[in-house]
From TrEMBL, chains A, B:
Residues holding substrate: T142, I143, D144, M188, G189, R190, E245
Metabolic or biological pathway, per its Swiss-Prot or TrEMBL entry: Carbohydrate degradation; glycolysis; D-glyceraldehyde 3-phosphate and glycerone phosphate from D-glucose: step 3/4
Enzyme's top EC category: transferase
Keyword Magnesium: yes
Identification of the protein by name: Pyrophosphate--fructose 6-phosphate 1-phosphotransferase
Documented EC number(s): 2.7.1.90
PANTHER family given in the database record: ATP-DEPENDENT 6-PHOSPHOFRUCTOKINASE 1
Entry cofactors: Mg(2+)
Documented activity regulation: Non-allosteric.
Active site residues according to the UniProt entry: D144
Gene behind the chain: pfp
Family matches, as InterPro entries: ATP_PFK, PFKA, Phosphofructokinase_dom, PKF_sf, PPi-PFK
Recorded catalytic activity of this chain's protein: beta-D-fructose 6-phosphate + diphosphate = beta-D-fructose 1,6-bisphosphate + phosphate + H(+)
Domain of life: Bacteria
Amino acid sequence: MKIGNIVVGQSGGPTSAINASLAGVFQAAKDLGAEKIYGMRHGIEGILKEEFINLSQTLGSDSKVQLLKITPSSALGSCRYKLPKVEKDEQTYQKIFDILKKYDISHFFYIGGNDSMDTIQKLSSYGARIGSNITFIGIPKTIDNDLPLTDHTPGYGSAAKYIAAATKEVIYDASVYPFPAVTIMEIMGRDAGWLTAASSLSRGEDCDGPDLIYLPERPFDVEQFVDNVKEKMSQKYAVVIAVSEGLRDATGTYICDSLASKKVDAFGHRQLECTGKALTNMLEVLHCKTRAIELNTLQRCAAHMLSKTDIDESFQSGYEGVMAASKGETGKMVTFHRISNTPYQLEYRLSDINLIANQQRSVPGKYITKGGTDVSDSIREYIEPLIQGEYTPQYKNGVPSYFRF
Amino acid sequence: MKIGNIVVGQSGGPTSAINASLAGVFQAAKDLGAEKIYGMRHGIEGILKEEFINLSQTLGSDSKVQLLKITPSSALGSCRYKLPKVEKDEQTYQKIFDILKKYDISHFFYIGGNDSMDTIQKLSSYGARIGSNITFIGIPKTIDNDLPLTDHTPGYGSAAKYIAAATKEVIYDASVYPFPAVTIMEIMGRDAGWLTAASSLSRGEDCDGPDLIYLPERPFDVEQFVDNVKEKMSQKYAVVIAVSEGLRDATGTYICDSLASKKVDAFGHRQLECTGKALTNMLEVLHCKTRAIELNTLQRCAAHMLSKTDIDESFQSGYEGVMAASKGETGKMVTFHRISNTPYQLEYRLSDINLIANQQRSVPGKYITKGGTDVSDSIREYIEPLIQGEYTPQYKNGVPSYFRF
């Protein structure tokens, strides 16, 4: 079965796995004999500007595809562009479909998170309205792991693996002195605590893990927090705490905003601050050494320590997307369905994009324990299979080497 | 040649390599037939409190020594204790020597940086004064690479490797959007810029490296900085800058202090802030997205990506220290001497502790270029051999596993 020309784009925040999905799309399209495989520069903006990369040329060798697979960030470039509603701006839609026609595109693939699936939804429904034959398929991507209808998302496993490893290393580093000290690790996830929960996987024979873990799924109370820390400090010197960047108080205000609201710098500028730093300031009353560590973008691009499981699944999700499109599927996203945990088995299916776009999936309450200060042991069963295995980087002069267009 | 009982301690900030030196001391002492090999808990404080670990028992198997070698942080615990001057408090010295006598110690080893070498200096000269036969040998350790008389220091290579890799990954992550953005990476080193300079090793065919690099060896001018950034932004969207945490203005005031001096939080507390964050605030005038990434302790404990060269040398420095002590050497530190660069060859020697303690070694001016906004290509020849090779972590359930007493 030979397919027509395809175009693929990447959108939203980069991850360590989004290029693996791109490699999967490319490989499947190549295997199915696609004549032209285009990459759009900076997502949908690349369509509107007709900025394409001819992937058949630039990814000519298998070794390049392999290197792309383990390269972090969005090799095609990304965007934060959200399509307007068709009622408000049909011209943009017409322009996109004109350009897709000009390049004789049969299949459109978009790798991304919530917002990107909104793009797939809008384009596929507009396509249906005008009777277009072009198929539109979404390939999931987000370290946040917050897309609905899928067991997990590509990119999450590698970020979770890095977070678990970094947490253990930070705990080792923080625990050397015989005096009280509090370290707060701030982990990504504005609305969902999946990444912060992964810090618990640092626990094992060699490490006790974080002493306290706070997810954004529970309202955060600063006074209660200080009390929790005090209690831990009565038991040990080095207290290490994992917090989500998205912690909010009972009114729904982000902690980083509520604590930083009156702050100005030497030049009178309002100060924005990270949650971890704001919380260490709240611990001044404890008169001990404090440190805030923000994992920042390091947690989403640490391709020097990928989860093999995550990268292989990310590749496969791209591959399956193309296979589905070749059978005429459209307006769908590839989703992951866990068949069993021991042994870990996964099935790839398709889900209606209308049930996914702009939706979010939080950490279920069953995983949140000890009054919202920890996660359950059972969440390990969920996360652990996703961080298994490694891809050794291709070192060059002592530093990992990656693919660049 | 059989040696008597030994005691070994770790001091100062932890690194990824300080346990490799401990493993080297242990292995040499074992090979030389030491009867008792003690580890002091929390450095010199462990002596004063008689808190020892019997390493012969706890490190009984070769596999444990191997695991210790690749374990980050200070397994024995560390301290920030600085010995008083003997004129002011001779009692403390008497107490230390009484305890060393009680445990029949022949050789004392201290693994650490500037302050730790001060301890070796004081104890060895006091020992000489009272006619003690105990030898005192310092094993160098600091990621800062700022000890004199040694080509480089154990721990630097692994930190430099991590920094080079993280810089490349951050640049990949920061470069995906088609709009202006500035990312500032803050790297450790209060007085010496060796670590910040290592960010330049991210440069290669696949990465242009940081656009600007500022070391603490040059006075930092905020206005000039903003101009430098403006110029870079006229050439490209994503500007990535590496700065040392220890940047100071012409008066010698740390930038993080001078910019943060008037800041208070919502509760009126004075705000301490990192250099990178303070500098992003200065870029508000450019009206673009900014982000500060502080590598923080992640850069000194990232044992999931060690430099094999560094770890092997760190082990060997401990080993050589014991060999030297067994020959009666005292009041010395093990130093590294580079015999050749191609092929890279190193020789271990001993240097007089009086020439090392409390001294610092900065990045020479020849390596600092472009008006203090970059480092020369030639610094690569110096750093690159130190980051070669890797040790694959011992993964357990998907996460690196380490040694713990």
